[in-house]
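Design a sequence for this backbone.
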């Protein structure tokens, strides 16, 4: 049943390898401050540094291209860029709430969770990154939802974007609680699927493609099928509220880099794939096979529009999935003031906050 409301050069290898634990331990958590209204600023000029989170996934293509091609660094100028790799959204949320991250590409589910956990204070959604790029892949014998009963289905992390999507879908089918859902790192899921230890997985790219091409999985459901026009926010850009308030110039520089990365990918697809693959090799030790990255790119759409109108439904989905106890009040969650300034300057259409910019 379809849902009713459906209207994304690294400075040095050592910098990439900065661990989350080291970062969290080296910086004290910053005190919570009253949330500013969208566009409100205590402008302190450009920041000395920008600590940026992202994942080694094709769904984070905008971030990977921005780093590899130097778009972020170019726009940031004298602001030092400190990229930090994460493997899942909940861990990145911890970094945001601990004050060890200034901005980050992250899934829609953890983005909502960061806002909820901080009672609407810690973060703001400032842009989109990627739409699409998530699939439920299964073994060949699973031909209908009921075939998943008694089987093991994997998502990347408890409460991450794909975890919520899977459990919401299972609930819609009357199967939540009848299917074993477990969480594993994506590379472990690939190995487990090959060994027959798991029979299905709801994964982001490139991992759904890798299971199909390397482990003999089939696509049971592309998440695009569940959304109006096939659009849903897989990756968005969050900024810590205090940083946004103090350094709007730096946030706009980051957004210009994001826009440049997306424009580059659209105009230079082959080079964009090569840039993403170079980053993935540096981050994981292994580049993707060309057929894998080619397939993964067909699933994603790069767009700075965060698709704000989908977030109230996403909040409801977390409750249906039993990942959250109650819906999150999203008033004030979205601040696209800086994004729209950047888009206007580039002669591009502005995006809609869907009313979520108001407290």
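Sequence:
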């Amino acid at each position: 049943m379809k849902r009713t409301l459906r209207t994304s050069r690294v400075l040095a290898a050592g910098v990439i390898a900065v661990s989350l634990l080291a970062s969290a331990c080296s910086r004290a958590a910053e005190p919570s401050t009253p949330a500013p209204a969208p566009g409100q600023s205590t402008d302190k000029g450009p920041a000395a540094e920008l600590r940026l989170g992202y994942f080694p996934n094709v769904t984070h293509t905008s971030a990977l291209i921005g780093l590899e091609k130097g778009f972020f660094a170019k726009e940031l100028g004298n602001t030092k860029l400190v990229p930090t790799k994460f493997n899942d959204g909940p861990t990145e949320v911890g970094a945001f709430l601990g004050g060890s991250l200034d901005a980050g590409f992250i899934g829609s589910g953890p983005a909502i969770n960061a806002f909820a956990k901080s009672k609407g204070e810690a973060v703001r959604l400032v842009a989109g990154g990627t739409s699409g790029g998530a699939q439920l892949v299964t073994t060949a014998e699973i031909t209908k939802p009921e075939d998943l009963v008694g089987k093991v289905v994997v998502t990347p992390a408890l409460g991450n974007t794909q975890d919520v999507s899977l459990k919401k879908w299972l609930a819609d089918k009357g199967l939540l609680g009848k299917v074993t859902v477990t969480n594993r790192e994506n590379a472990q899921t690939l190995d487990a699927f090959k060994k027959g230890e798991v029979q299905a997985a709801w994964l982001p790219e490139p991992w759904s493609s890798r299971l199909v091409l390397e482990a003999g999985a089939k696509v049971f459901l592309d998440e695009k099928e569940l959304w109006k026009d096939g659009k849903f926010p897989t990756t968005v850009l969050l900024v810590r509220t205090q940083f946004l308030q103090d350094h709007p110039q730096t946030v706009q520089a980051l957004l210009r880099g994001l826009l440049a990365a997306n424009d580059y990918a659209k105009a230079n697809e082959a080079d964009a794939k090569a840039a993403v693959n170079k980053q993935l090799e540096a981050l994981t030790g292994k580049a993707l096979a060309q057929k894998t990255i080619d397939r993964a790119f067909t699933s994603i759409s790069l767009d700075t529009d965060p698709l704000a109108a989908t977030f109230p439904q996403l909040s409801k989905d977390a409750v249906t999935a039993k990942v959250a106890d109650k819906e999150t009040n999203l008033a004030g969650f979205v601040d696209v003031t800086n994004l729209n300034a950047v888009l206007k300057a580039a002669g591009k259409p502005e995006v809609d906050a869907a009313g979520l910019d108001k407290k």
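The longest helix spans residues 248-267.
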